[in-house]
TrEMBL record:
UniProt key word Transferase: yes
Secretion signal span: none
Protein name: N-acetyltransferase domain-containing protein
Taxonomic classification: Bacteria, Bacillati, Actinomycetota, Actinomycetes, Micrococcales
Alphabetically ordered keywords of this record: Acyltransferase, Transferase
Keyword check for Repeat: no
Domain N-acetyltransferase as annotated: residue spans: 15-160
Species annotation: Frondihabitans sucicola
Pfam families: Acetyltransf_1 (PF00583)
């Protein structure tokens, strides 16, 4: 973690997702999917919104809220077991700030809230992955966390 981390904008707060956030959250999540070049899919966005709202699959949703503009960023997190240490961690699946709101501290505020949530939950770590070329986000992440040397693999389900 570096000491040159800019202070988050004091007008940005972080809270859990509420039903009233639906349209803004869906717009932000569609933007997240677009950023990662995932095909637009309203069904996926609707399904994930439902999971978060009902806290299914262990998912919890957070939003970074600007007092003037409303939600400007989101994070999706879930608990996972860490058998090697006998602890649990929080896994950050998604973190996104609207392009027009970047640089205002929403990402930093979300990460700070996740660190607090991990402490409240008794979690031993908050872990996530990002694209190697996502330099803008990585500069924020590097200010808050330590990159690991681990390599991620995806194994496809057997088709039978």
């Amino acid at each position: 973690m570096t000491s040159a981390t800019p202070a988050p904008d004091v007008s940005v707060t972080v809270r859990f997702v509420e039903e009233a956030d639906e349209s803004t959250w869906k717009r932000l999540y569609a933007g997240y999917r677009d950023f990662y070049r995932l095909a637009p899919d309203d069904d996926v966005v609707e399904r994930v919104w439902g999971w978060i709202l009902r806290r299914e699959n262990g998912l919890r949703g957070l939003v970074a809220v600007d007092e003037a503009d409303g939600p400007i960023g989101l994070a999706t997190v879930r608990t996972f077991a860490r058998p090697s240490s006998g602890t649990v961690g929080l896994y950050l699946d998604d973190l996104f700030t609207s392009p027009e709101s970047r640089g205002r501290g929403a990402g930093s505020a979300l990460l700070a809230r996740l660190a607090t949530l991990a402490a409240e939950d008794g979690a031993s770590v908050v872990r996530w992955i990002t694209a190697a070329d996502n330099n803008t986000a990585r500069s924020v992440y590097d200010a808050h966390a330590t990159a690991t040397p681990w390599v991620t693999y995806d194994l496809q389900p057997a088709r039978g």
